[in-house]
Design brief:
This protein is of the alpha+beta class. It contains 13 helices and 41 strands. The chain has 4 domains: 71 residues, no CATH class; 239 residues; 242 residues, Alpha/Beta hydrolase fold, catalytic domain (Rossmann fold), CATH 3.40.50; 146 residues, no CATH class.
Length: 795
């Protein structure tokens, strides 16, 4: 949740004070802290990848039109990486990082810390703590322009590089730059430096670039329709012929394409160096970059494989541009590889990555961070190998955060939930700081889910979810909507609705609404509908998704009373949970202390059963419509939260305001009898120093024999007009006589999926019932309201 008020300022000040105090102690002692020491932590290592050789691949004949169909090379989707693809050198940039040079303040601020950090790496968090003072924590920093990016320009959308391709033909070098944003008239400018001769000499790079180079021999400036080549040794500038450059801002193509005759570059050796950066073209059409006011008139630099993991991955870029050079980012290029179709496959390795994917245009716009290119963070543990499935931990950021805020500011998430338990950790962006993972944020989750499962080897039965504040709400939200995707949840400081619930409700409570929208019962946030989005009535869905709940007792943003009532409902339902109450932590206590080990251990003891003996699922249409409407940006979205495990197609009688409830049991899947038992713990552990008080509820399994299997099922429904059951997943034999015990509050269309024979008959309470064959494996039976015995037989 967004920070504000004295409580969070105190939390921020406390973090800074704790960091400084312990850092000084560590520095004087000359020893590093133990991994379990609170607050301090080493930074998350940025990940890299390896390449393997693939079959050669060639581009078709190419024309200069701004199109990309004649560029067959594909970027890796991992920020900072470069490969050869179909005879092109293809660089994938980090996105949303076009902030240009540092103004000098960050370099000055970090001079001492960066020098000390190799000796005392635990002081790393001093940097993000300072960056978040004015924004997240609302603490003024007069005279200092602190922010989560190191560059100090306003974000230059049309210079936000996403990909750079370099190609070659017999007479030409080819360049294709793509940006996250480009609108007509295109204002993107690309500066390319080429190192083609042995030796070094320092030259000022022309075109009002504001940089110098000790490596470059030629500089090429490309704008929407014009280009120029400068020989840095002689100062001669040659314009490219008309038709050599084209820009294409249409349909998110966002491309700047150019053909540069090799004759303008002197003898091109077999191996040469290339560096590149984007800026904004001179508004008057001169062969120059627009003056951006910070010396170097460049916003985004290519070929940066070693940026440290930060919110926007721009530290090295900002510091180098402040120094007036992009020489550290030269990349070696093989002319033979370009000419002979060199092709590589990319394999991400251990560490933290900026994963980039294409979203849908339906929720995108050519502005800032809202384009079709989106990203998420992914951490691969040291032991990661792509040849076997790995447990997967989802982490959802708090309000005011972004995809990489955990890697930048809360690094032990990736140790406690990732490295120490050999688990992949994924951190979605959610389409912005405050979408609450509904509307466009829900679309983002679903898109990231698909990309993760396409890209990595994931163990679907060991998938977990956690988050802080707004991310804690996401844990409740997503485990309720998709209980069959997760083995356990871990909400920290999580509101139980979009905003807050105080733990009480009564008729007429809304009459006491204050001018700022608060009532004694509910508080809204970011356009939410807290009554419709209230998760407590839907906790029934969490039968097989235990929760570890972290909550600071003096939390000033999320009422602890509401969280306690949430846990109490889990107890009433007989479900498994643990509630950790931290008496000394306010809202930001969990990420400030940065210890998650006990919650992570709790999660990881559970394994999802994709086909459990029982299924309980509520589909609330007010809840569903709120998820579709809130934070949708006016886009009409439709989600169907109508399934869990072997049940699907749950339709409410009232599609606007109804709540459909399904309670089912397969008697073909033996259910281990269990009893509930209270749990308690505290005040601290070696890696969870607290102090805390833990209460909870566990399941205890005895030695009772499992019941005999029966080819039968039971189901009870209310508020439902239709449901579909998978007999194979219920382990029912559709080729034999099948018995169903059904109770429904309204007329029901029951669809059964299974390997039925050619002919099927059915009876309800001994009377023949009509069976409709929808497909070879689907039969539908109309069941009247009431309690009935259903028999389905082959004939």
């Amino acid at each position: 949740m967004t920070a504000g008020g004295a409580g969070l300022r105190a939390g921020a000040a406390g973090l800074a004070a704790a960091l400084v105090a312990v850092a000084l102690a560590l520095g004087s002692a000359g020893a590093s802290a133990e991994p379990s020491v609170p607050v301090l932590s080493v930074e998350v290592p940025a990940g890299h990848g390896t390449t393997t050789v693939a079959r050669p691949c060639f581009d078709p004949a190419r024309s200069v039109d701004g199109g990309v169909s004649d560029w067959r090379g594909r970027a890796t989707g991992f920020g900072g990486s470069t490969i050869y693809s179909c005879g092109e050198l293809v660089y994938q940039d980090h996105i949303f990082d076009a902030y240009g040079p540092d103004n000098g303040q960050d370099m000055q601020r970090l001079a001492a810390q960066d020098a000390l950090e190799p000796t005392v790496p635990e002081i790393y968090r001093l940097d993000p703590a300072a960056q978040y003072l004015p924004g997240e924590f609302g603490i003024p920093t007069p005279g200092y322009n602190l922010s989560t990016h190191y560059g100090d320009l306003d974000h230059q959308d049309q210079a936000d590089l996403s990909e750079l391709h370099v190609g070659a033909s017999g007479r030409n070098l080819w360049f294709l730059a793509r940006t996250t944003t480009m609108t007509a008239p295109a204002r993107t400018a690309l500066l390319v430096l080429l190192d083609t001769r042995p030796g070094s000499a320092t030259h000022e790079v022309p075109f009002s670039s504001g940089i110098h180079s000790s490596r470059a021999d030629y500089a090429v400036l490309l704008t929407a329709s014009r280009g120029w080549v400068a020989d840095l040794a002689t100062g001669a500038v040659s314009p490219l012929r008309e038709g050599s450059v084209a820009a294409n801002p249409s349909g998110y193509v966002n491309a700047l394409e150019a053909r540069v005759p090799r004759s303008l570059l002197g003898p091109l050796p077999a191996g040469f160096g290339v560096a590149a950066a984007t800026g904004i073209a001179d508004p008057g059409g001169k062969p120059a970059l627009k003056d951006l006011g910070l010396g170097a008139n460049l916003a985004n630099v290519a070929f940066r494989p070693n940026e440290p993991a930060r919110d926007w991955w721009d530290k090295q870029q900002a510091f180098s541009l402040h120094d007036g050079t992009i020489d550290p980012f030269f990349r070696s290029v093989s002319l033979g590889a370009l000419l002979h179709g060199a092709n590589q496959a990319y394999h991400p390795g251990p560490g933290y990555h900026d994963r980039i994917f294409s979203s849908t245009p339906a929720i995108s716009q050519e502005s800032g961070q809202q384009g079709v290119l989106q990203h998420y963070g992914v951490y691969l543990p040291t032991a990661y190998r792509p040849d076997r499935p790995w447990p997967l931990q989802w982490w959802f950021h708090f309000r005011g955060g972004n995809a990489h805020i955990a890697a930048a500011a809360v690094p032990r998430i990736f140790k406690d939930m990732g490295e120490d338990v050999n688990t992949i950790v994924v951190s979605p962006d959610g389409r912005g700081e405050s979408t609450w993972y509904v509307g466009k944020g829900q679309v983002d989750f679903r898109e990231v889910w698909r990309d993760v499962h396409r890209t990595f080897a994931v163990d679907s039965d060991r998938t977990y979810i956690a988050g802080h504040s707004m991310g804690g709400w996401a844990t409740y939200l997503l485990t309720i909507l998709y209980p069959d995707r997760f083995a356990a949840g871990f909400p920290a400081s999580g509101p139980v609705t979009q905003g807050a619930w105080t733990g009480v409700d009564f008729n007429g409570c809304d009459k006491f609404e204050s001018p700022d929208g608060e009532t004694p019962c509910y508080t809204s946030a970011n356009g939410g509908d807290p009554r419709a989005e209230f998760t407590r009535p839907l906790l029934d869905n969490l039968r097989y998704v235990p929760q570890a709940i972290y909550q600071g007792v003096p939390d000033e943003l999320v009422p602890t009373s509401g969280v306690i009532m949430q846990a109490e409902r889990l107890r009433e339902l007989g479900y498994r949970y643990r509630l950790y109450l931290f008496p000394a932590q306010e809202h930001y206590g969990p990420p400030v202390v940065d210890q998650w080990a006990d919650g992570a251990r709790y999660e990881h003891q559970f394994v999802r059963d994709p086909n459990p003996p029982r299924v309980t699922y509520l589909r609330s249409m007010p809840f569903e419509h709120a998820v579709e409407r809130v934070q949708s940006g006016g886009v009409k979205l439709t989600f169907h939260f109508d399934r869990a495990y072997w049940m699907s197609g749950l339709e409410p009688v009232d599609p606007a305001k109804g709540v459909a409830r399904f309670e089912g049991r397969s008697l073909a899947i033996p259910e281990r009898p269990h009893s509930t038992a209270p749990e308690a713990g505290g005040p601290a552990k070696e890696d969870q120093t607290g102090p805390y008080v833990m209460t909870g509820q566990a399941w205890r399994f005895g030695d009772t024999a499992l019941p005999d299997r029966q080819n039968a099922f039971e189901a009870s429904l209310s508020g439902a007009s239709a449901v579909r059951l998978s007999t194979s997943r219920m382990q029912l034999d559709a080729s034999r006589r099948l018995i169903g015990d059904l109770t429904t509050g309204s007329a029901l269309r029951l669809t059964l999926e299974g390997a039925f024979g050619r002919r099927v008959s059915a009876s309800i309470d001994g009377r023949p019932a009509t069976v409709v064959r929808v497909a070879s494996n689907l039969v539908t039976i109309a069941v009247p309201a009431g309690h009935h015995s259903l028999t389905i037989s082959p004939r």
